[in-house]
Structures
1.
Amino acid sequence: MAEVFRSLRLYVLLQRASARGALQYRLNTVIGILSGAIWQGTGFAFIWVVMHTFPSLAGWGLAEIAFLYGLRLTAHALAMIPLMSVNDIQWVVRNGEFDRFLLRPLNPLVQLMGNRMGIAQFGDLLVGVTLLAVAGQNAQISWNAWLIAFCFVAIIGGALIEAAFFLALCSLALRMIDTFALRVFVDDVFSKFGSYPMKIFGGVTEWLLTFVLPVAFVAYIPASVVLGKLDTPLALAAPLLGVVLVALAYLVWRRQLDHYQSVGH
Amino acid sequence: MIRVEGLTKVFRRPRTFSGPFGALRTLVTRQHVEKTAVDDVSFEIHEGEVIGYLGPNGAGKSTTIKILTGILTPTSGTVEVNGLVPWRDRSVNARNVGVVFGQRSQLWWDLPLIESLRLVGALYDVPAPRFERSLKKLRDLLGLDEFLDTPVRQLSLGQRMRGDLAAAVLYEPPLLYLDEPTVGLDVVAKEAVREFIVETNGAGRTTVILTTHDLADVEALCKRIILIDHGKVLFDGAIDALVNEPRRLVVTLESEPEEVRGVPRDAEGRYVFEIHDDLPGMIASIAAEHTIRDLSVEEPDLESVIKGIYTR
């Protein structure tokens, strides 16, 4: 337990250092946040345009879809802000930088995570939280303390699900297997399918997105609970799935780490 | 302090094909190429020694260092560093060793040197008073003051190396691995690095393992060397024992006979005699029988001895 707190403290220290390093390139930072916000903003603008023509998608109104979209985006941002530098893993492995993480008395994953801060993802967070706040008031939700608490837990659970798939795929780079394209694809599936009511895809797709790549658990199922569209006790377990998947992903990471070969001889 | 026995590391990768559809065949092949980088290496290193770990490029030096530091897991063999198995007790082992890779900095590229050092201090849980004491000593020893506040990316190679050395010993590890710490440095900077190593090794407190291609480093610092090539140990012992050959007299003659006093003419038309005692007498007796065109005396040196071993 003491080691967990130590790791957390050192992670914050490393992350602050990398932020100081990154903030030297001020224009980069501003462009990064703006492009993140604009990218996600256009995604939602598209829904807005569609909803202008069809006022309801599978029984969901604009405010409800906005709430779903905001939930997904906030979870996505929270998953990627700490993990963004894990995305660099194949370069870090290729140029031998990963060696130095193994030479220091701190979990190499924590060091890799602390290597660079995700900046564009703060743009995602900005748009996500804004959508949640606005949609939370405009959709027909009878808020109470319990529901607010569930929202927080659901966001964290969703973030953990995304983080788990991301981490497991990234860890393959430790054996020089390049999964960058696959990661972009999975990220795309999460964002393109995760931000709409599953029902509109129907049948096989809905089943695949629930039980194979559990996109539905990130935002669709929790949002359905909050919006009163789904009332099964099992749905409340959705956030738990994130914890289980992250634990599995970490096991995969550990396993790949044993196969690390470094570069050069 | 370090015990290595039967250490072997085999790298395995898919075979690459060339020619038509080469890329595709490389992608689907199940054939693998194996390369034995370290082959049944054994040695022991005692506390306080400065060891020169030498070998040509690709000999297996860096692979050995990477196994000893816990970066790589060996294919077979046992390693014990301070009673620990480095790749299994990675995190504990890390606290006992300092590592400098001359080819690659371990500092934070965008941060001033002092911040990198503070981060290293935090990662190794160095308490503040000990950190300040250590830093002060290193500032004097390595002359860090002039570039302590400069971002690492703007440092010269010599300054960067001094920064890397400081980061490696800041937490006072009993064991120091230096992988080509003088590569690419000018004469003055090399001298500074050597002085630092001597100072750190001090009264035999810090054990140093040094790999380098600059034999002047080795002559200045190491009493003992381990020579490896193609992953095998070729020599392990005192430098004195290695360079213990007699001086040689090299002569060229006008007449160029097949042999002179039992020494055959070599490919360059020279005759090489080992000098055992009476050099003037030797020269006189050769001069009495032949007309000498040129004559020189060669001292044995580490470089030619090692070159001799590599090409053997």
Note: The interface with chain B takes residues 6, 10, 13-14, 17-18, 20-22, 24, 96-97, 99-100, 102-107, 258, 260-262, 264-265 of chain A (CB under 8 Å).
2.
Amino acid sequence: MNLLAVHVPWGLALGIKTLIVLIVVPTGALLLGYVFLLKMMSHMQSRLGPMEAGPHGSLQLVADGLKFLQKEDVILAEADRPVFKLAPAVVVLSTFLIFVVIPVGPGPGGVVSNLDVGVFYALAVSSLSVIGVLMAGWASANKFALLGALRAAAQLIAYELPLLLAVVGVVLQAGTMNLQGIVAAQQDGSIFGWGFIGNPFIFTQFIGFVLFMVAAQAELTQTPFDMPVAESELVAGYMVEYTGFRFLFFFIGEFGTATAFAALAATLFLGGYALPWFHGTAATVLGPFVLIAKMMLVAFFIFWVRFTYPRLREDQLQSLAWKVLIPLALFNIVLTGTLKVLV
Amino acid sequence: MLAEYSAVVPDVAFWIIAVAMGLAALRVVTTKNIVHAALYLVVVLAGAAALYILLTAEFVGWVQVLVYIGAVVILFLFGIMLTRAPRTDTELDNDQRWAAAIVALFFMGVLIVLLVDAFGAKHIVLNDNLQASGRLTADFVKHGHNGQVVRPTVGSAIFQQYVLPFEAISMLLLAALVGAVAMARRD
């Protein structure tokens, strides 16, 4: 039973879907920004954080957003104007595109576009943000910005490999790259014959899950991998010259992508929108809420690590990716493939 | 209304993409700023990916995005910015226009002959069931895979029929990599 199985013209459907994605990204950014950046970090450090705007300070980020919109749009005389203006848009575009394939419910109505190569598509478009970061750093005509952009490029390229290879294990086990298929494989699967709660891949792909989370932490440039924006070394890295709504774009890009990666990890490893024993209409209705709950759980871990650990050194960062994560990911692929053939 | 859409939209989309790609490709070679040239190259490569998707080769299209835009161009930009990153216009001409023109015309000729020979006037039917499946599926003229999913076909072709050439290419890339490391070492 599909609640969204009404026939609508493709143009209208496209419009509605675009609107949904346009709403989801800033909302997700606001949610993560408020719950984790403002509140969780404050409470972990024994302070209250913003308390004035709205109940418990919940409207603080909305107020900040309005403030950013009113600020002067400063572009330096030395800056490369078209590239400087385009860069934040490229970063945000890559964030928007990831949400196109994340399913929130069963059937074609549960996802904006049910792509056959879903998870591959998500990782491909997430790599576009590096171009925006390099454009921002170079066009700013500032050596701190350029250094930040170079660090970002080196880091994102290095951690894209373990990210992709970690997902290969999941794809092997599910037998599909389609995210709906991966969710179904987890709901209907069994762990070595024991299928009571299905098979959330966090159990059978635990190495993959850990690799995915570490690599995602680096892709999101969250501490301990925040060298591209290291405030004590590079002021704010590639976004140091950005003000007003262009800075807001980078902020939405950062937290929107964190939402996207958390939702992707929840879909790949925690069973996505599905719960064991829930099928049909119940699953359709509960789907979005279940996914948001799992997404918040994953995001909690991302920000918990961010507020706990100090920053790595640049060489430690590179050797962790190339000498530890990538060999481990390759081992995981061999292990998964062998078990897949034998069991 | 819905039936006509499938015939017209891909044609219109093709011409929009093709014109954008052509203009961007011209700017890649005419711009005086090397970073701008790399960014125009992004537009060309994105256009190529869009054309692959239009031709229902969805997987190849996203590989194009991940490998070329997500890695190759980023390494270009990384290399340029690490070494000089000129912020002003520079003279990029290396006076090899004639050699470049000859090579370009040669490859254009080879491609035209090959494509006309392989496909000629054959009409490739694209499945118009775009909405229902969320993707286009191709009617492969040469192999007759009517309406099959493309990705598994590509995968099995690479790892069964063409596994030896595939491995040979990997060795070639490995050799290039080792060579680059050997040349870059200073000790």
Note: Residues 3-342 of chain A form one domain.
3.
Amino acid sequence: MDFLNALILLLNYIFIPALTYGSQLALGAIFVTLIYGILRFANFATGDMMSFGTMVTILFTWYFQSLGISLGVLPTALLAIPFGIFFMIFYMLSIDKFVFKYYRTNKSPPVQLAMVSIGVMFVTQAVVRIIIGPSDQRFFDGEKFIIKAREFKEITGLNEGLALKSTQVITVLVTIVLVSLLFWFLNKTKTGKSMKAYSDNEDLALLSGIDPKKIVMITWIIAGILATIGGALYGLDKSFKPFTYFNNMLPIFAAAIVGGIGNPFGAFLGGYVIAFSEIFLTYAYKKFFMYMLPESMEPESLIQLLSTDYKFAVSFSILVIVLLYRPSGIFKGKVL
Amino acid sequence: MRKNLNVIAAYSIMMSLIILVGIFQSWNIALSIFNLCLISAVMTMGANIQWGYAGLINFGIMGYTALGGLAAVLISVDPVQEAWSAGGFDILMSLWLIIAMVLIIRFILKRFNKSKIRTYSIAVIIISGILLIRFLAEPGIEAIEAVNPAKTGFLGGFGLPIIFSWIVGAFFAGGLAFIIGKVALGLRADYLAIATLLISEIVIAIIKHEDWLTRGVKNVIGLKRPAPYEVDLQSTDWFINLVEKFNSGKLELISNLSDRQAALNQLVIEGSSIFVKLCYSGLFLTVVIILLIITQKALYSPWGRMMRAIRDNEEAANAMGKNVVKQHLLIFILGSAIVGIAGAMLVTQDGLFTPGSYRPMRYTFLIWVMVIVGGSGNNFGAILGGFAVWFLWIEAAPIALFLINFFTAGMSETHALKLHLIESVPYFRFLMMGLGLLLIMRYRPKGILPEKIEIK
């Protein structure tokens, strides 16, 4: 019984939250890695682009709610996400046309593109804050829990409750579907393969008749889908605040680099590596050991490796270690 | 003289803008803008040394600024004796442990060849060392934080004049840069940017949460000042006489004696805060001028030429026998040290240290906008960038408000869109910064005052 209690405890406080958070990071990290692999620059506007897509989704959610449209137990936001994606893609393509294209055709060094993306970051941040304001926005509706902690306790008779939020399940399911579709697209279709070829060797790809304009456009479209869905899922699960989204850029970057930048599968796993290590290292294991050890050996302190304040610091330290020992990332991305 | 015409023109426009603010808004605002412009200028000079001279991207400016601020606290605050006696021993022990750990690791790295066993043993030493330190320091930290937590709850500093912290801040920041440089300088440009950005976040996390050292988010307020206090000035005779002399024309117009006294008092209160700000301006201006002379000399010295050679073609410079790695590390340290000075200056001016206020937007990306807009590689350009961008950053809200009122003049006062726009006026500064950066990058990629290399 104690063993089961301990297991549920870990499931409830480590595994499920980390899986959800990891999925959200993974979507962002694939976005970063695609832009890096195909357009060849580190996009510092990542977080703010995600917040832009989420903002449009929120506005549509509110509009639907005012019309009385809802999905019953599911959050209305799911209905609004396609509209968010549409506007996001439009926004990204126009930014590309007016800003990034010039530097791409001039073959500017990646550093210059990264600087330009900082300009885009400022502008996007301003647009989001002017339209929706800097404060917290909640747009979740529908059924909040699939399993409630108290009900779980009553059914199983265990001491530890397991709470499963619907947003957590939605996040994980949507991520699985989206990522499998994406990998199918990248690996099996002609366009996906030409994207890979373009990422590996631009000149060779051009010689074999691949149209760079099409590749760039499709990259932005995929990026728009990933950014909006990733952002909206994060907002549904936690809450939407422009500043948090800007800050999320950092663990997303860490995930993309840890996974090997330019490698979408690596970025996907990198998201989970970052999320799990953040939560593993900052969780206080006192209760876990209380269940596992006999009473005489019960720990007195919290048995916490690092205080939760250092959550972000953990992912960044992992990044530094990876950069030092395996600069191409765990799953071999582009060699630096 | 002729070739410097654009520099002189740009600077006179900038100064006249600040003077205009003084005339139309108030001299107090103008001076506080000017002071922060000077501090920004120091930061941009630091970033410019790294980016403009050597082509290194450092997105960790926020971290160095915060370390400079920490130096100001550690130097100027009086030591808290109770806290030292409560937990000072544990902290010192931990410090010795850290030093011992570093020495052991250095020894292992030097003595043994690279192998898996070496890597693992170093990892084991680091992890067990951290656990041991946590175990040892915990009671000490708790004891320190329990000492009068509302007022102190930290070890305090050395109780020296805060001016010294400007130098110490430089050393702190330089030390951090040495560690980061050793770790990250081998990375390619954009990875270096990301790595430095993340490391600076770690630094901020530590400063925010190690309460025994920095008081964390409880902030340190009431730091000592290098300038006189307004309250003291207001009761000093020579200052009152000075104000009277300055405003004699205005005062003579008031015939009633008590009215005149009241007007004088008002002027003295205003004057005292302007006088204090002027003191700061003088101090900051001295720092800026000294740094400008040094950096200008360095730029045109053989060393500056070598740095540019490294920046423009690393392989060629390496082939000529220049030690690229060493020079990169050196310039990384120098630039960061200058940013550290600016961080200490900032805390000195504010008189308070608020770890929660260090955000990458304000202290990293804004500084980069300054460098790019002003002109990388040109010290005058970098300083001008600091001035222009900070001026715009502050004056963006009034400008935006004016524009909104202008374009929505046809709407009624209660129109929802107009009210919403007016409410979001503070965020137009981000828009202006972003558009400014994008336009400069597109149409004047070398900045307002581009790099100019004279061969003498």
Note: Residues 80-155 of chain B form one domain.
